[in-house]
Amino acid sequence: MAAAVNTSSTDYKVAGGDDYDHVEQARNQQVLARDYICAVPEESDMYLNTSTIKLKVPAGEEFKGSVLLKNLYLSCDPYMRGVKHSDNATTKQDRVGFFSPDSPVVGYGVSKVVDSQHPEFKAGDLVWGITKWEEYTLITDMQSFFKINHADVPLSYYTGLLGMPGMTAYAGFYEVCNPKKGEYVYVSSAFGAVGQIVGQFAKLMGCYVVGSAGSQEKVDILKNKFGFDEAFNYKEEPDLDAALKRYFPEGIDIYFENVGGKMLDAVLLNMRLHGRIAVCGMISQYNNEQHEGVTNLMHLIYKRVRMEGFFVFDFYHLYPKFLDLVLPYIREGKIAYVEDIVEGLEKGPASLVGLFNGRNAGKAVVAVARE
Fold it and tell me: From CA 62, how far away is CA 41, in angstroms rounded?
């Protein structure tokens, strides 16, 4: 990546009243986007920039409630692949973009509070939420952040197992699917940050669990490390319907949907009466200009199947309940978790791009600074 240097500063006042120019400053390395991205990102879509930042929250009404963060870990997630921008966007989610021209890439991360003008956060606090791909970030709205009160587990887990992906797995499996002991559960893209957690939740519930992934190495890890009953490489299955019938001769009660397309069509043929499908993502469709149609939807009627899309933001009020469930599992060694951590912001673009070609071997994380 080409490096650019920006040493400009802004003439603010410090909250205490001293001139902002006299405040200690630090280097702020950043990963910036070259333009909007509405497709699979490439490393060339991003570039490295070095600027400086003052290590105090500026004074002024517009900065009340603001917090200056030192970013420790950044999360690489499939949803970051690009969001179409539209002048007709009607919701906040429609207007969210993770790539904007010459601006830092946006995504989830784990951070440490350097300075704060927010009554609920103080210097030294650890938090996770939506930040920017840079060493330091000034956040003016902390509504999307959660304070980390349990630091006896690896902080990087809050980018995945204890962060948005873990909460997504919890919401989709427990809240949307309402599982019961002994049910038959299928998880597509099971080696992903969400899928590996869903499968383990299902096993801890006493379900029969099968997952699919894109390589034999990932299949082996699903069975031998994450405890799935069975797993298969979908790339080696020319007939997905036949593959599912082989692993689910009595049908599927719960399908955790991450793929869409031909996989969803095959699953619909194999659902059991009163089955549930939690639609988390459809990664097979993200790169398609023309999305594939689904031809077996009548089976939703025949088998009284409930298929429901969900958004993790709608379930964040359950985060304390989620922690009460998952933290004991981690401490007791009942949940396994695999991370693929790269060191340094400069490695971030390659790690993010690796999500879309299968290069990552676990939850993709960029370590910016270790505490």
Answer: 34
Dig out the tokens for 130 from the structure.
């939506």
The tens digit of pLDDT for each residue in 300-356 reads: 999 999 999 999 999 999 999 999 999 999 999 999 998 999 999 999 999 998 888
- pLDDT, tens digit (0-9, with 9 covering 90-100), for 263-305: 999 999 999 999 999 998 876 666 656 667 788 999 999 999 9
Q: How does pLDDT run across 83-93, given as a tens digit for each residue?
A: 544 444 444 44
pTM listed for this prediction? 0.86
The two structure tokens encoding residue 184: 């038959």
